[in-house]
Design brief:
The chain is built from six helices and seven strands, in the order αααββαβαββαββ. It has 170 residues and is α+β, with helices and mostly antiparallel strands. It has a three-stranded mixed sheet with strand order 4-5-7, with no helix packed on it. A hairpin with a 5-residue loop joins β1 and β2. The radius of gyration is 18 Å and the shape is elongated.
Length: 170
């Protein structure tokens, strides 16, 4: 058995790819984030829903397992660095994506995501001989994450997406 040190930078390469498709913070200037963020925690303290948490390297990141983003802009107002776009800009280009582990896709009736979606971006398409299947209206989805923590199968993620996902409608 080798006692050679593990090259963590290579291991982080694969983890980083998974993280980068998820939004870090609303209104964040992604290109400057890691260079300018001092990890002071001001945004974490100001988040009224408690979804901003420290992640890899101590950088703040939204965690929808703890709730939803209300787009209050308090994280941006609390930040002492010029990391955030103006509130008039879109918060992010992230949307909900429903994975194959969704209970409805396993023919088990569940509509918890649709019940929690305030903009009604998640609807259910009736199917003959099967339970209604969830569909996301990409234009109506704000990426708030309200559907994530209520999903009993943990089948919903909020991530930067392209139009054309199989479970997304325009």
């Amino acid at each position: 058995m080798s006692h050679a040190p593990i090259n963590l930078s290579r291991r982080q390469l694969f983890i980083h790819r998974k993280i980068t498709d998820k939004p870090a913070l609303p209104w964040i200037k992604e290109a400057q984030f890691t260079d300018l963020c001092t990890q002071c925690g001001a945004c974490i303290k100001q988040c009224p829903t408690g979804i901003i948490r420290p992640s890899d390297g101590g950088f703040p990141r939204v965690d929808f397992e703890h709730g939803e983003c209300t787009f209050c802009y308090q994280c941006a107002e609390a930040c002492p660095e010029p990391l955030f776009l103006p509130k008039a800009e879109p918060a992010w280009h992230a949307r909900a994506v429903i994975e194959a582990s969704c209970l409805a896709k396993q023919n088990i009736d569940c509509r918890s995501c649709g019940d929690s979606c305030e903009p009604f971006a998640i609807s259910f398409k009736l199917a003959v001989g099967a339970v209604a299947q969830p569909q996301i209206n990409i234009a109506g989805c704000t990426g708030c994450g309200a559907c994530v923590s209520v999903c009993p199968a943990s089948a919903i993620t909020i991530r930067n997406t392209l139009l054309g996902d199989a479970n997304v409608t325009e």
